[in-house]
Amino acid sequence: MQQISTKTLNMNVQKDLNFTWSTQAILFCAIIIACIGLNVDSAPVVIGAMLISPLMAPIVGIGYGLGNSNPKLLSKAARLFLIQVTIGIIGATIYFFISPLNTASAQLLARTEPTLWDVLIAFFGGFAGVISSAKKDGGNVVPGVAIATALMPPLCTVGYGISHLNASFILGAGYLFLINAFFIALATAAGTIFFRIRSGERLNASLRQQVLIVIISIIIVIPSSISAYTIVHNSFVDTQLSQFINEKLSNQYIAKQNVDGKNIQISVIGQRLSASQVEQLQQSLKQYHPVITSYR
To answer: Could you tell me the strand order of the sheet in which 292-295 lies?
Structure first.
């Protein structure tokens, strides 16, 4: 049976928080590799970059410092984190500025609309990571966490946004990176506190610190929750619309369909629909979704 201890966790976290030029060089190489993968729309290349990136270490260090109420360790990890984020953004900006491929790939676009699911992935990924770090034989959990939580791609996408002066890319990808980093750190802090309680240690975190963390978590989660609701709502509307078309317009060719708020517009090619038929369809659509505005 593998043992889990705070001593092992402390050793594994501390050893990765030293600033070395070789580690920063590896980070820079990982950033460029990730940028290339995003630029040419290659998921395997992006995954490879995430595997070699050392960006997870300072985030885990921040969470561990919070969980131990250790301001010295927290400051050390935060400084390293800011340095690595700066290196990442500068490297990505330079790459995308000189790259001849200017079109935003699907891989880049996918990092601009974070949702509540990204919060859950980051939190549970971070929790899995802290458990792995507390085991004497951590196994291969950490590389999996690095892939699942995807810290590198949004950071590279921020660089793309800066190089192309695109605020939506900067804000969307920056928010995704913030979600991932914050909730990995929060999960690490929660895991650290759990292991300390389990080993009989006395906690020294103030109520003010706990309340502050909860408030920050809620503030960060709100926009992603709204985005998640929008995705779920749009998926529901698309499903209902497809069902309506299959059942009520099976003899028509649908040239175009568009959902705009509470209005649904469908352009059809085929037998011309009379005004009474359109009115009947509008009435029957209420069983699926609000009003069809026009047919062409």
So the answer is: 253-260, 263-269, 292-295
